[in-house]
Amino acid sequence: MSELKLPTPEAIIFDMDGTLFETDTLLIPVHHRVFETLREEKLYEQETPPVERLLSCLGMLLEDIWRQVMPGSTEAARKRADELLLQYELEGLAAGEGELYPYVEQTLRHLKESGIKLFVASNGLEEYVKGVARYKGIAELFDGLYSAGEYATASKVDLVARLLQDHNIHTAWMVGDRSSDVEAGKANGLLTIGCAYARYGRAAELDGADVLLSDFHELIILLEQ
């Protein structure tokens, strides 16, 4: 982690998957259920793609994810996969599946008590993003949960710009694990913090981040420097 002296931000904006939420703890069983159902419904005839392919696409928009995960699939199959993914994710969350990364809740509470506004900006679906926050008991800590699914943004750059404008925020940190998070932070003039503890992307995803975290709790150390 950097020894930079960083100005205290008005707000910190977090990605969800691979940043706050350890997505594979929910997504691995959901992935298999989705493809079993697609085959039962005759929408997909091939074997289930490796779950690693889906995990490596986290951070993309859903329409792009399915083109990577099941190339050559029909639009009907991809649309149904969207529906099934959300259904099975929410069922899993309701059943207690899925875990936050270590120290996420404690760190978020400390940041909130320090007077910093907290937000999520995710390329996921609205119901999923809000569902993770609700079922994992952190929803009330956020001043806003922004998702591409709710705001129909074409990129995370646009989503973060909308968030900053809505809340009249001038200084913020962008925290995430993918190149889309670094891009969104840089394009909006924010300090960008890369989550190097996440396992879903390549290390090069975080090229250009101002600071790298090896543990979520290090955000408190950064803030106190």
UniProtKB/TrEMBL annotation:
SUPFAM superfamilies: HAD-like
Molecular functions per Gene Ontology: phosphoglycolate phosphatase activity
One Pfam family, short name: Hydrolase
Gene Ontology, cellular component aspect: cytosol
The protein's name in its UniProt record: Phosphoglycolate phosphatase-like HAD superfamily hydrolase
InterPro entries on file: HAD-like_hydrolase_sf, HAD-like_sf, HAD_sf, PGP-like_dom2
Keywords for this protein: Hydrolase
Domain of life: Bacteria
Record organism: Paenibacillus prosopidis
